[in-house]
Amino acid sequence: MSAKLPEPDAVARAHSQKVVAHVRDLLDKNGGWLSLRDYMQAVLYAPGLGYYMAGAQKFGDGGDFVTAPELSPLYAQIWATPINEAMQRSAPTMLELGGGSGVFAAQLLRQLQAMKGLPERYAILELSPTLRARQRQTLSDECPDLLSCVEWWDHLPDVFAGVVFMNEVLDAIPPRVIERAGEVWREHGVTFDGERFVAASQPLSDPALLALAASRFPEQGDYVAELNVAGEALLETLGRSLTAGSTLFINDYGFERGDTLPAHYARGTLRAYYQHRVLDDPLLWPGLLDITYHVDFVAMAEAAQRGGLTLASFQTQGEFLQRHGILDALARCVGNCNAGNNNAENDNAAAEAAYLSAAKAVRTLIDPDAMGGIFKVAEFRLPPNTKRKYQPKQWRIFADTDNERPFDSNIVGLTKNDEVSDFSGRAILIKEGDYLYLYMDCGNGDCIFSEGLVIKNPYPTKPYKWCCKLSGEIEYMSEYEGRFSDEEKRVVCGRKESKNMTN
Ligand SMILES: C[S@@+](CC[C@H](N)C(=O)[O-])C[C@H]1O[C@@H](n2cnc3c(N)ncnc32)[C@H](O)[C@@H]1O
């Protein structure tokens, strides 16, 4: 297969040599062997070197692969409705993981604006500095008027209210690749044969990983599987950070454990992409190829559930996009393509070509034998009124809970300016959309606990700048503490401060 591949140019080869040197250094430090997880981590994410961290084009026609938002603007347009509805159930805040070229954010924001559903904050959590710069550029080009609501985060928030979305992120997180042959368990990895990196496995020695693999492998037969341990930890952590009513959407390609996979996946699903070709050899040209694999959606659902989330829906991408009207949106394209067309033959031909191109992209997105069937959409929610975060009094913000409750049972007054006080009198800056944990002393040794989102003061006659829209009911100390085991209180009391209060 490699004979037919377009050869990288001299600049790309020189870059790859730097990546090779970096990986060889890691191999030397690790006794001559790296797990595939560590190899993939290095060639995709080593700062300044990895495929996602350096300047390669990656997405689109001039790159190595095409993702759904790159394929058609209708993809982001269709997502706007479920995302808008989910924000209305929780908060007008959106977090996109792995923003790619920024095209999804730009197109989604435009569509949300047209629907009068713009988020107050659109955060992108992106590991790659070059992709961050590219996302900023795309947004500046496509929707400069909306750039002010976009911000980039380095890490997951401790607490998040709103909607989280990720497309093709889990498949980009390096997995452990485990094999069972007969009774013998091994982990796939990489070594250097003097000329290039080659596949080499080692006996699986980590007992926790062995137990995990054993619990997921079919009872009998030789088998290879990717275990996305880091992706599962990501979902579990995300689940724990979401507030009641919030939603997590995952779109990715993969399978449900137990599905019969095509025979060519018998040695695992890990593959490399280079200039729109699929390569069975992920070790070729380190740093110049994307490496990816199928997501185990059962493992992901279990992880999200460990984080407290409930699976609200699971369907193929084709079903999801059709259910939300992509064919109607395509039909409207015909109108748009023909608009302004005064029947000149050339205009007709151009309109027809534009429509055919849009239709071809939509077909790929929904075709059960193409992306429509391989990709899945999973929606997880934290049910409304779920109470879960233990926050001790000393990390909480003072709120005059009694003062405004007669006006509106869900809104309390906070402050006339941008400062609130915590338990020790320390001033903390707040802004719209922050999620706060509140307390009010009852004066008799008891306390009222509540939590919610900072909103603008809705009362014309009240002097506040900011109020708090409570999520769920207020609780007295005995009710509140009764929800947690001593162990839970001990664990969360180890934390110092909720970062969200000042970010
Ligand atoms: C295949 S690209 C998909 C990009 C984009 N979502 C799209 O659909 O075009 C994978 C993206 O995930 C990002 N990524 C990988 N691991 C991540 C992580 N742990 N957290 C956030 N982003 C991550 C990469 O930097 C990259 O932007």
Describe this structure as you would to a colleague.
It contains 16 helices and 24 strands. The protein is of the alpha+beta class. It has 3 domains: 1-318 and 377-385, Rossmann fold (3-Layer(aba) Sandwich), CATH 3.40.50.12710; 319-376; 393-501, no CATH class. Helix 8 packs parallel to helix 9 (297-306) and helix 11 packs antiparallel against helix 12 (345-366). The protein starts with 9 loop residues before the first helix and ends in a 10-residue tail after the last helix. The relative contact order is 0.11. Bound molecules: S-adenosylmethionine.
Could you give a quick summary of the protein structure above?
By secondary structure, this protein is an alpha+beta fold. It is 34% helix and 24% strand. The strands form five sheets. Strands 2, 3, 4, 5, 10, 14, 15 and 16 form an eight-stranded mixed sheet that branches. Strands 17, 18, 21, 22, 23 and 24 form a six-stranded mixed sheet that branches. Strands 1, 6, 7, 8 and 9 form a five-stranded antiparallel sheet that branches.
Number of helical segments with 4 or more residues? 16
Specify the biggest β-sheet: 8 strands, mixed
Q: State the CATH architecture of the largest domain.
A: 3-Layer(aba) Sandwich
Number of domains: 3
Q: Which secondary-structure class do the elements indicate? A: alpha+beta
Q: At the first level of CATH, what is the class of the largest domain?
A: Alpha Beta
What number is the mean pLDDT? 87
Tell me how many strands there are: 24
Low-confidence stretches: 491-503
Which radius of gyration do the C-alpha atoms yield?
25 Å
CATH topology of the largest domain: Rossmann fold
Strand content: 15-25%
Q: Name the assembly state.
A: single chain
N-end to C-end Cα span: 50 Å
